[in-house]
Amino acid sequence: MPAAPGGPRLLLRRLREAMAEPVSAQARLDRIVTLIAANVIAEVCSVYVLRDDNILELFATEGLNREAVHLTRMRSDEGLVGLIAKTAEPLSLSDAQSHPAFSYRPETGEEVYHAFLGVPLLRAGNTLGVLVVQNRTYRVYSEEEIEALQTTAMVLSEMIASGEMQALAPGTGSAVRRPVSQRGVALADGIGLGHVVLHEPRIVVKTLIAENVEREVERLEWAIGEVRSAIDDLVERGDGIGTGESREVLETVRMFAHDKGWLRRMREAVHSGLTAEAAVERVQSDNRARMMRQSDPYLRDRLHDLDDLANRLLRTLIGHEAVGAVGALPENAILVARSMGPAALLDYDRTTLRGVVLEEGGPTSHIAIVARALGIPAVGEIANATALCDSGDAIIVDGASGEIQVRPGPEIEAAYAEMVRVRARRQEQYRALRDLPAVTRDGVAIGLQLNAGLLIDLAHLHDSGADGIGLFRTELQFMVAQRMPSAAEQQALYEAVFAATGDRPVTIRTLDIGGDKILPYMPALEEENPALGWRAIRIGLDRPALLRVQLRALLRAAGGRPLKIMFPMVATVDEFVRARAIVDREKAHLRRHGHPLPSECRLGVMVEVPSLLFEIDEIAREADFLSVGSNDLMQFLFAVDRENRRVANRFDPLSVPALRAFRSIAQRATAAGCPVTICGEIGGRPLEAMALIGIGFRHLSMSPAAIGPVKAMVLGLDAGAVTALIDAELDAGGGGASLRPRLAAFAKAQGVPI
Ligand code: PEP
Ligand code: MG
User: What transmembrane ranges does the database entry give (predicted)?
Assistant: First the structure.
């Protein structure tokens, strides 16, 4: 291997001088390629920049024909340069021309060169271009040379990202500025237009090239030591759990903090002349590029852990730069985060927050629940969202389709702005219905109630025009808290709920934890099938202390007013009878101590475990009311995991078996004189709600945003006609087919808005 005169350190020093010279961008770039070629002893050094239109353009060369500069252009997936841009990995070949991807460009005169080494120009994992060196001989580039070229590439990446290249060819700014459209999953409905605010602002490395290499080596070692001991502390204390970092994650991060390969690469980068922070960023950028191309979720998570660790190192080295007051946001802010806890979201100023974009977060994640309660459009599972956009970028969040548009073009922006106007008009129409009673055209009164769980939900009680709260999910208070809410805190929440609902009915559900509803401060159980595991009423009956505290808080909060409590995940009548006995004991306890008891205490059961369908007459006799939890009932009836996107939409709740199950519950409960409500998600979808009314439900409980559309449907519906249609279909023996198309056609023909 030919010894490089002075090695990468000298090259970086020279590059720093070149960067400081007051010359044009082209002159600077020409100087840089000459310096690199001389330093690595290559006959050729060329820079290709990825343009906005996805074309790679030769921007500067030493060794190839100069006339080819700004003339040689190729598609971003063409030739060896395209291959490097696509894979974001270095490519080293002793004979480039024998590589199948080689694409010959006569204008460059490159036919005489054989050895080829190209590295991507990366920034935050995005490819901005490609840096290539070539030699006439069939030589093999060493690992050190490849590393050195990657380090050098960083300087060029910064030059491109700074916008300096814009002057060289119009429209050829940095490729990361292109509009990007990406689809994830819809978490909270609504459309938000605004500008990116990174939840964890990216740490900007300003000084790339070291003045004093030895000092930078010391700084890096110091920072590694600091970060390691901070993580050791966290693991040992077993905390960090409250901040959403589980022990398992911390253990993995700790393992990476000792990863020899990772540390070696950062140390080499510092030794080659980068500052400590630039060395971390250089290795982090490669890692991010790999993360973006990694489809295996497990490996992607590990790369994320490594990314976190790099961020910790950067924060240690640069310090946490304050980003304004905590929670303060600019106008029309769209928060972009890898992940975020519900408490963090609640800390932001909601008056200017227009949307949330997450790299993680499924539809049932806590943050999704809170975003829905706040009415903030949110989208999850956007891979690399935090690398795709920069602070201040224009962005649109479509919480209906699960799409985001980063730096949208004017047409896209106009289309979304129009969509927002249409939605606002529709909301106006729903508001006009607010005070009308929900009665069908043929005179059937339908009770429309809210599903709620947080204090912020209660505001919707007034503006939606709901009759009351049909399902208050008490576990949400537990899920958004950093620690177990005390008895007093529970009581205070229930008092606030009763104060807000006034005379309107409210049904409080006891803690439905376990399964997917994990409390961050409680030890997680390793269960093979958590949805079928130790959860909800099962925990309540086996370890009644928690349930007793909650029941007491409820009974006290209710004071002299009526109280409705229901129990989740009841599988047998016996479980309900035992839960009722606990309530009776608590009532007796309060009575003994002279506390006022509720004027009336009605106890209900969630019908969400299919076994109860075969004891429905008995449970309808025992319980004061029933409420169908269709989310879980569908999950267990069809054996489809409600969290698993691959199967979650496999079966239709409007199919014959599902509708027969719902009909049998409604008919049998009604026959037994037991009031029955449906409180799963389906009650909030107009077409489904229409079918539910058709099979006999008269009370539906739903999310606040659904009240308007469902009420509009009710007002246009002839309940008798839909009953006749569904009964005929269900009694005819439909073979499992969905009635959805028939019902949609019926609604259309009858002019029912769905
Ligand atoms: C249900 O299962 O339908 C329900 C309403 O409860 P949750 O979604 O909270 O499980
Ligand atoms: Mg449920």
Answer: none
What are the pLDDT digits (tens) for 641-671? Answer: 887 767 877 889 999 999 999 999 999 999 9
679 lines ligand 1 (CB under 6 A): yes
Exposed, middle or buried by CB within 10 Å (0-12, 13-18, 19+), for 284?
buried
Q: Which of 606, 636, 642 to mutate to test the pocket of ligand 1 (most atoms within 8 A of CB)?
A: 606
Instruction: Give the ranges where 528-674 is alpha helix by DSSP (H).
Output: 537-542, 544-558, 573-592, 616-622, 630-637, 656-671
| pLDDT of 26 strictly over 70 | yes
Ligand nearest to the CA of 509: 1
Judge whether 43 and 63 are in contact, CB under 8 Å: yes
Phi/psi for 79 (5° steps) reads 70, -175
Q: What is the largest CA-CA distance in the chain?
A: 99
Query: How many A from CA of 700 to the centre of ligand 2?
Result: 15
Residue closest to 685 by CA, chosen among 462, 400, 297: 400
Q: Which CATH architecture has domain 180-201+324-424?
A: 3-Layer(bba) Sandwich (3.50)
Q: Is 281 in the pocket of ligand 1 (CB under 6 A)?
A: no
Does residue 683's CB lie within 6 angstroms of at least one atom of ligand 1? Answer: no
Q: Is the CB of 629 under 6 A from ligand 1?
A: yes
The number of the ligand nearest the C-alpha atom of 629 reads: 1
Which residue has the CA at smallest separation from atom 6 of ligand 1?
A: 629
Residue 473 CB less than 6 A away from ligand 1:
yes
Tell me if the domain spanning 213-318 has CATH number 1.10.274.10. yes
Distance between Cα 514 and ligand 1 center (Å): 13
In ligand 1, the atom with minimum distance to the C-alpha of 630 is 3
Give me the architecture of the 7-176 domain, per CATH: 2-Layer Sandwich (3.30)
Ligand nearest to the CA of 369: 1
Strand 126-135 versus strand 115-123 pairing type? antiparallel
User: Measured between alpha carbons, how far is 207 from 198 in angstroms, rounded to an integer?
Assistant: 22
For 249, the token pair is 């994650």
Provide mean pLDDT across the span 160-186: 74
Which residues have CB under 8 Å from 660's CB, separation 6+?
730
By alpha-carbon position, which residue is closest to atom 3 of ligand 1? Answer: 629
Burial 387-418 (b: 16+ CB within 10 A, else e): bbbbeebbbbbbbeebbbbbbbeeeebeebee
Residue 607 CA, ligand 2 centroid: distance in Å: 9
Q: Give residue 680 CA to ligand 2 midpoint distance, Å.
A: 7
Residues 6+ apart with CB under 8 A from 443: none
3-state SS assignment for residue 744: helix
Residues designated as active site: 366, 679
Question: What is the pTM (predicted TM-score) of this model?
Answer: 0.72
Rounded distance, CA 556 to CA 281, Å?
56
Q: Is 314 left (phi over 0), alpha (psi -120 to 50) or beta?
A: alpha
Dump pLDDT digits (tens) for 330-373: 899 999 998 887 777 888 888 899 999 998 877 767 788 788 88
Mean pLDDT of the chain: 89
The CA distance from 627 to 706, in Å, is: 18
Q: Rounded to whole angstroms, how far apart are CA atoms 664 and 166?
A: 68
Q: Are strands 378-380 and 353-358 parallel, antiparallel or unpaired?
A: parallel
Top mutation candidate among 510, 608, 612, 636 for ligand 1, by most atoms within 8 Å of CB: 608
* 362 vs 616, higher pLDDT: 616
Specify the residue with its C-alpha closest to ligand 1, atom 4. Answer: 629
Domain spans, the chain: 7-176, 180-201+324-424, 213-318, 433-750
The pick from 364, 372, 606, 631 for probing ligand 1's pocket by mutation, whose C-beta has the most ligand atoms within 8 angstroms, reads 631
